[in-house]
Amino acid sequence: MDSKINGYLELNGSIFKISSIDDLKKFVSRVGKEMEEMTQTDFITLCEADYSRFVKDIYDDCRVRYSEDRTFLVKADSFSCSLEEYKISNSTICILSKAFENDSPIDIKRLFIPNSVIAIGANSFYNCRQLQTIIISNNLQFIGKDAFYGCSNLSSFDFPESLKFIESEAFLGCSSLSSITLPHQLRILGSHAFKNCNSLKTICFNSQDIEIGSGVFEGCSSLEKIIIPKGCRNKYEAMLPFNKEKLIENE
After folding, report:
1. What is the end-to-end Cα distance of the chain in Å, rounded?
2. How far apart are CA 182 and CA 186, in angstroms?
3. 199 burial level (CB within 10 Å; 0-12, 13-18, 19+)
4. Res 69: pLDDT
């Protein structure tokens, strides 16, 4: 079976070329060749739910499937634990697309994502409505499309300083979020990323170099203020034309 992977990963300032499962093992041990920083497309490819690239899978006690070396969380096939909280394996670097997509009720309320995780794939926690609290990786760089779509009980999310990409509709319908602070390294905030977050009152941007998609706060009926970096009003007004009156420059 083909175990080739094409991509690059960053860890504590070092860049690693990832071409195989063996390279992933080396990555975990911080061994590899220095290459270019990962792009948004690289992250999307890394998170694809292509199970054929794994030679062997293993399962934990909750029937969550990982790659053999646990660097990828593959799929919660039939989550069998009655636990209200779940801790992802410490060696995991990527949560694949659709990993916890909610085809049947999953009762996880608290989720622990270790600092080894740099990417969360598309639809990975789609409609996990019981999810309330996430302890997030301090090294997370990528959140995929629809990743937390419909997580209506998620009351807070601490976006780490390492985060660079939030794809479209990533938090659509997260109706319990009341305030969020986005890091200065964030480069892309996709279309409708926070659509219908109708409890969201305050959002704070820290990035002076960011691309913001259309309708990012559409349906956020409680939104009162959007705090932006000082001197960036013209740029943010152009990206958020329907929210211009809510923009407040940071002191």
Report:
1. 57
2. 7
3. middle
4. 85
In single-letter form, the type of residue at position 224 comes to E
Place of tokens 């996990």: 128
Closest CA to 10 of 33, 47, 37: 37
Rounded to 5 degrees, what are φ and ψ at 243? Answer: -125, 20
Q: What is the mean pLDDT of each run of 10 residues along the chain (251 residues)?
A: 52 56 58 59 88 78 86 79 82 92 70 94 92 94 96 95 97 97 97 97 96 96 97 96 94 75
Q: Could you say which architecture CATH assigns to the domain 41-177?
A: Alpha-Beta Horseshoe (3.80)
Residue 46's closest CA among 23, 18, 88? 18
Give residues with Cβ within 8 angstroms of 187, minimum separation 6: 164, 165, 207, 209, 210, 211
- Give residue 13's pLDDT: 44
- Please give the C-alpha separations between residue 182 and each of 70, 99, 179, 206, in angstroms, as whole numbers: 29, 25, 10, 6
Domain ranges within the chain, ordered by starting residue: 41-177, 178-251
Contact 206, 184 (CB under 8 A): yes
pLDDT for 56 equals 78
Strands 211-212 and 119-120: unpaired
pTM: 0.85
Distance CA 170, CA 161 (A): 18
- Alpha-carbon gap, residue 250 to 12, rounded angstroms: 29
- φ, ψ for residue 120, nearest 5 deg: -120, 120
Q: What is the pLDDT of residue 62?
A: 81
